[in-house]
Here is the input.
Amino acid sequence: MGESIRKGISGEPVIDDAKERTKSLYPFHEMERRARKLWNEEGLFEIRDPMTAERPFYCLNMFPYPSGDLHVGHGRNYILGDVVTRLKRMQGHSVLTPMGWDAFGLPAENAAIEHKIHPATWTRRNIARMKEQLVSWGLAYDWNREIASCDPTYYRWTQWLFLKLYERGLAYRAKGTVNWCPSCNTVLANEQVVDGKCERCGTAVETRDLEQWYFKITAYAEPLLRDLDQLVHWPEKVRVMQTNWIGRSEGATIRFPVSGSKESIEVFTTRPDTLLGATYVVLAAEHPLISQLKERGAFPRQAADLVERLRRARLGDRFGVETEKEGAPAGIEAVHPLTGAKIPIWVANYVLMGYGTGAIMAVPAHDQRDFEFAKKYKLPIVEVVRGPDGAFDGRAAYEGEGTLVNSGAFDGLPSPEGKRAIIGALEAKSAGEASVHYRLRDWLISRQRYWGAPIPMVTCERCGVQPVPESDLPVLLPDQVEFKPTGESPLRTNEAFLNTSCPKCGGPARRESDTMDTFVDSSWYFLRFLSPKSDRVAFDSAAVNRWLPVNQYIGGVEHAILHLLYSRFMVKVLRDMGLISFSEPFERLFTQGMITKNGVKMSKSKRNTVAPDDLIQRYGTDTVRLYTLFIGPPEKDAEWNDRGVEGAYRFLQRYWKLVEDVAAARDARAARTGGKHPAWSSTGARRELRRRVHQLTAQMLADMDRLHLNTAVSGMMQLVNALQEYLDGGGDRTDPEVQEGMNIGTRLLAPLAPHTAEGAWALLGGSGSIFTAGWPEASREALERDKVTLVVQVNGKVRSSIEVPAGADRAVIEAAALADPKVRSYASGKTVAQVILVPGRLVNVVVP
RNA sequence: GCCCGGGUGGCGGAAUGGCAGACGCAGGGGACUUAAAAUCCCCUGGGGUGUAAACCCCAUGCAGGUUCGAGCCCUGCCCCGGGCACCA
Here is the structure.
């Protein structure tokens, strides 16, 4: 930032000079102070009683993790939300605009390890610092409703939710192969593993077999998928991502008996029509049948070696399309459920335990993966589906649909009928049935870390795993623990915490020492804001039902799956418990793009962050807000440019000068005339100015509604330019069109640059806060014009323009267009084939 | 590989199928000033015709198409960003 400070002749910065000068020119510091005081005193953005506040509108920004300093990229998110808040407030809504802190999480704990500072201290300090920054952006939050997820008054209810899910069988403990991040020293949910790496720190994820707590989100796979259709105000992109993540596949579950045993192998396939082409069966390395075979000593050495190797391999190395397919015979055979033929069973690296049943039927003629594998290990390939391009060529699998062949009684059926017929045949033999599988896995919520909500469960020697009674909540995080990066839960270092008594029998018991994934905290916080201090309930159902779904939710697209999916899940669970009456938490979602510097995302580690503090000090809050909004379409990424900030500053100065001029002239006139409102002019420049003001009013409302705030700022600039040009052209500052233009313009500016607009409002003689002044509406009468200019095209090329009366009919316009000298020069000697007329816009004369 | 976005001046970007480049930044010229800063005014996609007023041609990644008219719609291709990816 230092480079951008202007240098004086001597090379010394001239900031102090500039500050002095600007103080008189555009007194932003003073205005900021006064405006904030006014808003606080009036409580304009506070909801006193959620049940009686009129026309509720809930505008929410994703609450931040208190990592320390905010940069201008974060600001974009909050400023966007603030514009919506202020606009809705001006439109007469009671706006709920709360803020809180997603305050549990790893960085605090890592700070504890590195700097010997308690996570709570570190977090509190960051919250204080970040709150200061949010305030300096002029954001209108109802701070009476502030919450922090690390506060026992909050996490008590996170624990309560856990118990509710447990009661309903939606929280369960299970042993399984889980993702483990060796750097964060904890397990991760599937959603937190990206490309085999930890979503947070980028370390390659390993697998471990552990007993962990899960939330049964898969029980809601279908509603989570189906209800995406309702979310018409969500970005298409996010809905697509969630659809892919849930990953619904329709097909059939088929059981292949194991030859000479009572066992059978269950497989899932989306292509039951290819069943007759199944020439072998493949098991994943972790398939339970393998350990049984091992126990019996019936598992070939070669296969056992492969399984061992795969289990040790890192997740990222093991899977991927580039990985060479590898397998070994499992030493047993399966019986084809329809033909009775014996086919070999293999173990291979290309089948995953985490999807379907962990076993597949291989149809090499119609699945490229099976095809490659069959080629490599010389397994039989049988064509059973014939596509439109003729018979299977033996070079690659044919994966499309077609007509069944080599399928006995099913020959000649098209694939869809074939699927139904084969499923029917399987059902008749109880060998299979139609089924649906999802890619979505259950949500692993245990974390072997300290700074999170303790899982409220105990293990009794006699009664087993028992929930902590609701009345005993919260299970408090003890202060005294050792922070060591050992991979063991730090809570295990506190014996007093661990040792407890069984809620059922009173005997000795041990507390669960893991804490919950912080995404549990954030999956319900939007409900808490309606009753942030309640020690009676997690959330006030009546108030929540009145205010939710959140009308406008704003945040980064990086939460497209994690937070947004979990929140949707939680809301559906709470609905099914009868605690809330809606099914989706967020009606409208807006995902803003990030701000880059030198082409890359701003981050502390890249040392390319732009801090708001200096800029706000030097140019004022509203300058920074305006530039941040103007930088580009809010859903797209944008490059920060310090020179652009100066442009916004120049604009506000020009605007302010105009306010002072117009206000002074108005006062002078009022003194002369006793404040009588003069009449509108119906002609000329005055009329045109008024039309322009109202036209921009309409445009800016449309822009703001769509959150196209870059063009809204542009519209504001045009409005000021129009007024300035009118005055420069000899217009009178006391003309009612000018006075009205300033009045309307100032209200239009208010959501964007609230402090400046508030200051201007006072100067222009407005009463009270501008945010109670109402939103200006474009007057239909002002928008009317008596003459319109039409573009005249010949064969689609612009050649001229004509002016016609506004209501002119077709014949008049055509005649005027054809009479135009330019048109005549292009059309002379030719017959006019057609005249296209677009009312109010253009005439196109078509000649051969 | 599949699924989304996106490609427009020197830059950020505007444009319900109807005057491409609004608005701003940067740049050039001028006014003010002893000078600079700040401010204000004018110019600013490329090429061409004209003394001038004016006028013409080209131009929204590339190639086609639909249309009276395409940055916008359709087909194919290239490039950039994001998501998913042995998902059975």
Notes: The mean pLDDT of chain A is 87.
